[in-house]
Every structure is written in C-alpha cells, then in structure tokens.
Amino acid sequence: MYIMARRKFENENIRNLTRGSGGTSYSVILPINMVRELGWKAKQKLEAKRYGDGILITDWSEEE
Q: Which residue in 45, 12, 48, 46 sits closest to 30, CA to CA?
C-alpha cells in the first residue's frame, strides 16, 4: 500500500479556495485541529458573514 505524503505549509492556516462541482459555490478546507478546538462536527450548520475584507464563520443559531 502506498501512502501519499502531505506537503507541509510554513503556516498551516494558509488554505486554498476550491470551486464546487456545480460552479455555483466555493469551499475552503479547515485545519482539523481548528475544527476540533471549536467542537464542530461533520454536516453541522455554520453561518458565513461578510466581515470587512474577510468572512466570519460561526456556529449557526436558530435564535437570531
């Protein structure tokens, strides 16, 4: 069995923006340690808001 080695970035927080297969959305893969620290799970609903020159991603809440 061959296991592909991962490339290490100098900064693990540098991520690529990837276009979705339908061409109507994009995705960013987050570092696993960040997701674990936040306690997020697969298929969890998140909210993305424009924040200055960036995007703020938070846990989604029905209460708003």
A: 12
